């Protein structure tokens, strides 16, 4: 997809595109000069049309208008943006996505998008947001569609027009600094979108294909393309390192586990060493503490954390990151069988701590605990962040769109929360209350695997904290936002690719 920012004034009459989208604020239609020009070209039918359609510019409203050759654009797409006072820069992403979805409905190849008036200082962000919105709204997991249904978007040209009263683009900028900012913004947007789509593809794929071995192959391909170092450990190597928690989860499955470790090294001296751990349970049946059929339905997505860190790594290594970045995916299935781990088992973790198992469905924290121990022993990072679809309780607490963020170092998590806000992903801080650790006391081992229902996402966080020590660490429980139940904005139904955009925003400074 090509993005252009014209440097000459564009008029509605002459702008040659298949569709031209106008982003319109509620209650500001009558004094919009572009609409007036459009109305003139259409011999005064517009007010009646808008009245008929009850289009006033509300946030949920949109309306496609055929122009019958009266202006340069074949169609004009009216996209309601809601009240101007509620408008935020981040809305550019979802507004663009809505415009592009409307355009795709009529198999459009080129689209002009007239944005609200925005300050030139935001040029890079705006270019990035438009790019993310346009590319991500064309995503569909269509690999398994056959026949008529398989119709990928044909959109190839996006012309971005800054909204200026009186023309589609009244004072287009030829300032080289702004041009450069737009080029950077598009590149960044493309990388975020590609990384997010990689994560979506991995997470949407069925567990029959997306096995631990397959995930390791994906990492291998990424390593080759981006010149990353890759270590993949099989069961015997994990046993030698003492990863008995990770291996216990894997032992009920016929699929072999893979411990995946990817490393990106910047060209200069690294600013710091960051480890990104992604929960990579490729299918979570619950094991012997088996889930209900409904509870298992989406459990191919239990490697959403792994998808996010791999997608982010793809983008980071492409754009060049000042940090040394390590990605770890302890990939395994969680299955019931005659060889499965059992309730009451006591297991020794990689760092020596013993764990009493009381629910084999709390498998994620076991895989993460050994990954955290590995990271500290082998990498000695300045910061570790884990992304995990860890608890249903987190979704109950924060709703389906928001991830819970827990940490042992408040100073470390604040920039991540800020980055998430800038990236348009919802994350919210949760506590790790010392008193709640009582719930993890075991009579027979150092620690019990899980507490009761109360504060289920917090006790999961407290369990992980047992394996962290002094290293700054952030835990992101993304059980809710890993998936979307309906299409909306730049999200399609299914996997969202949650986490990729925030990681990039967090690790890549802007020039
Ligand atoms: N993968 C699940 C968590 C999950 C639930 C993710 C719903 C996405 C949607 C995790 O392994 C799990 O089963 N957690 C248990 C924890 C409990 C046994 C302490 C849960 O949430 O019920
Ligand atoms: Mn589980
Ligand atoms: Zn799980």
What are the distinct ligands in this entry? ligand BES, manganese (II) ion, zinc ion
Overall residue-averaged pLDDT value: 95
Number of strands: 20
Helix count equals 15
How would you sum up the major sheet? 9 strands, mixed
Strand content: 15-25%
User: What form results from the Cα inertia axes?
Assistant: elongated
Label the structural class: alpha/beta
Distance from N terminus to C terminus (CA atoms, Å) equals: 24 Å
Walk me through what this model shows.
The chain is of the alpha/beta class. The chain is built from 15 helices and 20 strands. The strands form four sheets. Strands 7, 8, 9, 10, 11, 14, 15, 16 and 18 form a nine-stranded mixed β-sheet that branches. Strands 1-6-5-2-4-3 form a six-stranded mixed β-sheet, covered by helices on one side. Helix 8 (244-250) runs antiparallel to helix 11, helix 10 packs parallel to helix 15 and helix 13 (410-423) crosses helix 15 (500-507). The longest helix has 29 residues, at 176-204. The chain binds ligand BES, manganese (II) ion and zinc ion.
Keywords:
alpha/beta; single chain; nine-stranded mixed β-sheet; 19% strand; six-stranded mixed β-sheet; binds ligand BES; 20 strands; 511 residues; binds manganese (II) ion; binds zinc ion
Briefly, what is this?
By secondary structure, this protein is α/β, with parallel strands linked by helices.
Q: Layout of SSEs?
A:
Layout lengths: L1 E3 L14 E6 L8 H9 L4 H8 L8 E5 L8 E6 L10 H15 L4 E5 L8 H15 L19 E5 L14 H29 L7 H15 L2 E5 L1 H7 L2 H7 L7 E7 L8 E6 L1 E5 L8 H4 L7 H16 L4 E11 L11 E3 L5 E3 L7 H16 L3 E6 L3 H7 L3 E6 L2 H14 L2 E4 L17 E2 L7 H10 L7 E5 L5 E2 L9 E2 L4 H8 L4
Parallel strand pairs: 1-6, 2-4, 2-5, 5-6, 9-11, 9-14, 10-11, 13-17, 14-18, 15-16
Antiparallel strand pairs: 3-4, 7-8, 8-11, 12-13, 15-18, 19-20
This protein binds ligand BES, manganese (II) ion and zinc ion.
């Amino acid at each position: 997809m090509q993005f252009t920012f014209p440097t000459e004034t564009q008029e509605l009459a002459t702008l040659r595109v298949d569709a031209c989208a106008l982003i319109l604020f509620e209650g500001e239609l009558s004094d919009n000069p572009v609409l007036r020009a459009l109305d003139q070209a259409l011999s005064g039918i517009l007010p009646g049309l808008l009245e008929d359609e009850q289009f006033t510019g509300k946030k949920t409203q949109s309306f496609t208008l055929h122009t019958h050759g009266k202006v340069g654009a074949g169609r004009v797409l009216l996209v309601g943006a809601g009240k101007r006072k509620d408008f935020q820069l981040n809305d550019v992403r979802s507004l663009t996505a809505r415009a592009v979805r409307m355009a795709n409905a009529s198999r459009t190849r080129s689209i002009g998008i007239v944005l609200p008036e925005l300050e030139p200082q935001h040029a890079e962000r705006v270019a990035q947001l438009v790019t993310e919105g346009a590319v991500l709204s064309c995503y569909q997991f269509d690999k398994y569609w056959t026949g008529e249904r398989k119709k990928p978007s044909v959109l190839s040209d996006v012309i971005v027009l800054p909204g200026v009263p009186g023309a589609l683009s009244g004072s287009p900028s030829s300032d080289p600094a702004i041009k450069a900012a737009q080029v950077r913004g598009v590149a960044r947007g493309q990388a975020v979108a590609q990384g997010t789509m990689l994560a979506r593809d991995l997470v949407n794929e069925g567990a029959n294909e997306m096995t631990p071995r397959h995930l390791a192959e994906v990492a291998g391909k990424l390593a080759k393309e981006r010149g990353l170092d890759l270590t993949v450990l099989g069961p015997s190597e994990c046993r030698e390192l003492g990863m008995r928690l990770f291996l216990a989860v894997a032992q009920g499955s016929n699929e072999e586990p893979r411990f995946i470790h990817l490393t990106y090294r910047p060209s200069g001296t690294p600013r710091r060493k960051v480890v990104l751990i992604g929960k990579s349970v490729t299918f979570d049946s619950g094991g012997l503490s088996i889930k209900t059929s409904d509870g298992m339905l989406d459990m191919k997505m239990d490697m959403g954390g792994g998808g996010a860190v791999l997608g982010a790594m793809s983008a980071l290594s492409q754009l060049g990151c000042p940090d040394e970045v390590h990605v770890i995916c302890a990939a395994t299935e969680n299955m019931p069988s005659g060889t499965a781990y059992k309730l009451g088992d006591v297991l020794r973790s990689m760092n020596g701590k013993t764990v009493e198992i009381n629910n084999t469905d709390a498998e994620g924290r076991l895989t993460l605990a050994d990954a955290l121990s590995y990271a500290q022993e082998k990498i000695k990072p300045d910061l570790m962040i884990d992304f995990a679809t860890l608890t249903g309780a987190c979704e109950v607490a924060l709703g389906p769109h928001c991830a819970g963020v827990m940490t042992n170092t408040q100073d470390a998590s604040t920039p991540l929360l800020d980055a998430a806000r800038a990236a348009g992903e919802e994350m919210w801080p949760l506590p790790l209350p010392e008193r709640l650790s009582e719930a993890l006391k075991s009579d027979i081992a150092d620690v019990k695997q899980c507490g009761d229902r109360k504060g289920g996402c917090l006790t999961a966080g407290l369990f992980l904290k047992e394996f962290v020590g002094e290293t700054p660490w952030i835990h992101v429980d993304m059980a809710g936002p890993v998936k979307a139940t309906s299409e909306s904005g730049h999200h399609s139904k299914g996997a969202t690719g949650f986490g990729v955009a925030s990681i990039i925003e967090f690790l890549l400074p802007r020039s």
